[in-house]
Specification:
heterodimer, A: Rossmann fold, B: 251 residues, MetI-like fold, 10 helices, 82% helix, binds adenosine-5'-diphosphate, binds magnesium ion, AAA+_ATPase (chain A), NitT/TauT family transport system ATP-binding protein (chain A), nucleotide-binding (chain A)
């Protein structure tokens, strides 16, 4: 089944003084239910824009996005967003942050907290539920961001460079953790990154975006079965070949890549 | 020596030096112009034991409490409203800005005409000094508040009124606290002026009377009490801010 269909979507921003920026053009993409698809591309190519369009946070200017066959009109509880900057409310504890999207939806406080605790446990932060974000490391803060997204029990997780602000080591741990959670929960994941390795290690399919206005330059199937083991995947020759192909595609397009 | 201990040593040395210089200069001047620190100390003791200082501050504290309660409600309320809702801000801010730029002291004759010379008039004057700091700090805080929090609320489908209550209000809390601190410090100016230009009571009245009677040593002692209160308010409320908003870098 198809979870998300992006049908010939274009997006342009109108800035101050009527200046137009074409961020996306002619995007066609289909994400299968329960699938893990990465959007890969250089900085400024429109990855965040596309992801926010998928969430309904910003309207598209052309085309249509359908979720479960229905055109979207705004954010919905079937989708949850994970931000690059974690975006935790600093005055709330870990528990308070995860409970946040459930307030006004689940009426019983005990039930809200029980749900939140389940996901806090899933991301391994049970001992920290009374801590405030400023007392946590970046990796732990993003775990909270992921728990918050899972707490609303969405069908689709939209993740915008969720590990982009983390150091290399934490980043690898979080990748393994995310795969574990994905395999456990069966969510559909759309994962934005500008790291080729990250996209290849995590996803079943990688859609590569070209620079402004963002278009889908190519899509690559990643032929490794899940659950994946980091060393076996990274050592495999098919991984190196794919890596090479994607790199060549991106090099022809831009030099904005850092990896 | 630890760093705080060294800081204190420096402060005490500076104070001792100041007192020494003051004593030397004052000994060469008439006591009515500049009394020596020793005389000021004695005058302070007299003011304290005679109950004059306590009486004056007692009157003042009540007025400040009432005025600042009003200033907080009005300043925080209007600040939140105008910071959040642009059209209202555009409507009211020019007026409030113009009032803010008018020297508050120029309002005294009008306040006297409308509210008399007693407690009510004084409360209004103190309010005029305290309100604007609270209002502008809160409004600018809400206005400049991280838009990203609002995007978060929208992404998770939180309705507007709940966003106001669970995101905007707590995000504005540090600004409310800063505004109240600055407002209270400005209110002290109003307090002193109220004693000068309205009924001669409270700490402002005491200062006025002591000056008029050329009781310079007591006058300086009373001024020192205003200084101490100002310092205490500033330090105390800063500490409170740091405790209530530990994630905020102290400004
Ligand atoms: N709110 C906005 N208004 C105007 N232009 C924007 C806005 N957001 C993004 N853009 C522009 O759209 C393009 C794509 O941005 P973005 O989606 O953030 O790219 P990416 O996430 O791939 O780095 C950039 O040129 C950016 O400057
Ligand atoms: Mg981005």
């Amino acid at each position: 089944m198809t979870a998300i269909e992006v049908d010939d979507v274009g997006k342009s921003y109108t800035g101050k003084g009527g200046k137009r920026t074409d961020a996306l053009s002619g995007i066609r993409l289909s994400v299968p239910s329960g699938g893990f698809v990465s959007l890969l591309g250089p900085s400024g190519c429109g990855k965040t824009t596309l992801l926010k369009c998928l969430d309904g946070l910003i309207p598209v200017t052309e085309g249509e996005i359908r979720v479960g066959g229905v055109p979207i009109t705004g954010p919905g509880r079937d989708r949850a967003f994970v931000f690059q900057d974690f975006r935790l409310l600093p005055w709330r504890t870990v528990l308070g942050n995860v409970v946040f999207p459930l307030e006004g939806v689940v009426s019983s406080r005990a039930e809200r907290e029980a749900t939140a605790r389940r996901y806090i446990e899933m991301v391994g932060l049970s001992d920290f539920e009374r801590h405030h974000p400023h007392e946590l490391s970046g990796g732990m803060q993003q775990r909270v961001g992921i728990a918050r997204a899972l707490a609303v029990d969405p069908d689709i997780l939209l993740m915008d460079e969720p590990f982009g602000a983390l150091d290399a080591q934490t980043r690898e741990l979080m990748q393994i953790e995310l795969l574990r959670i994905w395999e456990l929960t069966g969510k559909t994941v759309v994962f934005v990154t500008h790291s080729v390795d990250e996209a290849l290690f995590l996803s079943q399919r990688v859609a590569v975006l070209s620079a402004r206005p963002g278009r889908i330059a190519a899509e690559f199937e990643v032929p490794f079965a899940h659950p994946r083991q980091e060393h076996t995947v990274r050592g495999d020759s098919r991984f190196t070949d794919l890596r090479h192909d994607i790199w060549r595609l991106l090099k022809g397009d831009t030099h904005a890549f850092s990896e | 020596m630890t760093a705080p201990a060294r800081d204190w040593a420096v402060r005490i040395a500076a104070l001792a030096l100041l007192l020494l210089v003051w004593q030397q200069v004052a000994q060469r001047l008439p006591a009515a112009i500049l009394p020596t620190p020793v005389r000021v100390g004695a005058a302070a003791r007299d003011l304290l034991t005679g109950g004059e200082l306590a009486l004056a501050w007692g009157q003042t504290v009540t007025q400040v409490a009432v005025a600042m309660a009003l200033a907080s409600v009005a300043g925080v309320g209007l600040g939140l409203l105008l910071g959040w809702y642009r059209p209202l801000d555009q409507l009211l801010s020019p007026l409030l800005g113009a009032l803010f730029l008018t020297p508050r002291i120029a309002l005294v004759p009008l306040i006297a005409l409308w509210f008399g010379l007693q407690d009510l008039a004084k409360i209004v004057l103190i309010l005029a000094f305290g309100f604007f700091e609270v209002f502008f700090t809160v409004r600018d805080g809400v206005r400049g508040m991280e838009r990203s929090y609002l995007e978060l609320a929208r992404a998770y489908g939180v309705p507007t009124w709940r966003t106001l209550r669970t995101v905007v209000l707590p995000a504005a809390r540090p600004y409310v606290l800063t505004g109240l601190r600055l407002g209270l410090l400005h209110a002290l100016v109003g307090v002193v002026l109220a004693g000068f230009f309205l009924e001669t009571s409270g700490i402002g009245g005491l200062i006025y009377n002591l000056g008029a009677a050329l009781r310079t040593a007591e006058l300086v002692a009373a001024l020192l009490s205003v200084m101490v209160v100002g310092l205490a308010v500033n330090v105390g409320l800063r500490r409170l801010e740091a405790r209530l908003t530990p994630w905020q870098v102290t400004r």
